[in-house]
Structure formats: C-alpha cells, structure tokens
Design goal:
Helix content is about 30%, strand content about 35%.
Length: about 140
C-alpha cells in the first residue's frame, strides 16, 4: 500500500520552506524552487467609519505597487456583506521583488498609516507558492 504523503508548507523566514510528512510520522525535507512566483492573500478588517478614506489610501498604494517590475497583480476585494472587510491578492514574480517592495518608502509609510488610522486588529496573511500560472 502506498504511503499517504502530505505536503505542509511551513511559513518561516523563507516562505518556501517545505517538509513532506509520511503517514508513519517520518518527515523529509523538500527543496523548493529558487524564487518562484508566489501569491499573498491578506485579510483586512478596518475600523468603523473609515472605509472611504481607507479605500482612497489603498487605491493610491495599489497603483504604485502595480508599477513595480516584480508585481504581476495587485487586486483589492471588498466584502459584499460587511464593508469593513477586505481581501487583497498580490502576485509577485519572486521573493526578492516582494522584499524590495516592502523596503520601498511608500510601502513603509502606507503600513504605518494603516496601523495608526484604519486597521482593526492585525491583517491575516497567507503566502502561497504558485504551482501553475498561465498568462
């Protein structure tokens, strides 16, 4: 009988660290590809009565982010049931591109503004390695 293999991506300093766990509990490290495309999903909840100003700031930030050479997509979604909730989809060509983006002065300023003026709690972020992408 074949062993059931589960792939668990451990989000550490390197979001592409992966281990494979066999059904008997043994683990084996798996090499991840160098600088693959990856996606970040951010779930954000904002404070009451800040939606209009938040969206203005977010749209300005998104326009700058989309101009970066390593950004493949930056898509903003707002909940249809609760206008305080947003999902942001980011697609990056590489970890290096994302790291450079995070160091950009406008990104540092945007994150500080979000924390002080708009966010209700911390955003929840998930990093995903892109396994298949077609343009």
């Amino acid at each position: 009988m074949r062993k059931l293999i589960l792939l668990v991506v451990l989000l550490t300093l390197n979001p592409f660290t992966a281990k494979t766990y066999a059904s008997d509990g043994d683990s084996v490290s798996v090499e991840a590809p160098q600088n693959p495309d990856f996606v970040i999903l951010s779930f954000v909840q904002i404070k009451d009565d800040t939606a209009v100003d938040y969206k203005k700031a977010l749209f300005t930030y998104a326009a700058l982010t989309r101009k970066e050479p390593g950004n493949l997509a930056y898509v903003i979604h707002q909940s249809a049931e609760d206008y305080h909730k947003f999902v942001i989809y980011e697609h990056w060509a590489s970890l290096e591109a994302r790291t450079q983006h995070l160091a950009a002065p406008y990104t540092v300023q945007f994150f500080a503004q979000m924390k002080s003026e708009f966010l209700q709690g911390d955003p929840v972020r998930f990093n995903y390695q892109v396994l298949d992408f077609q343009e």
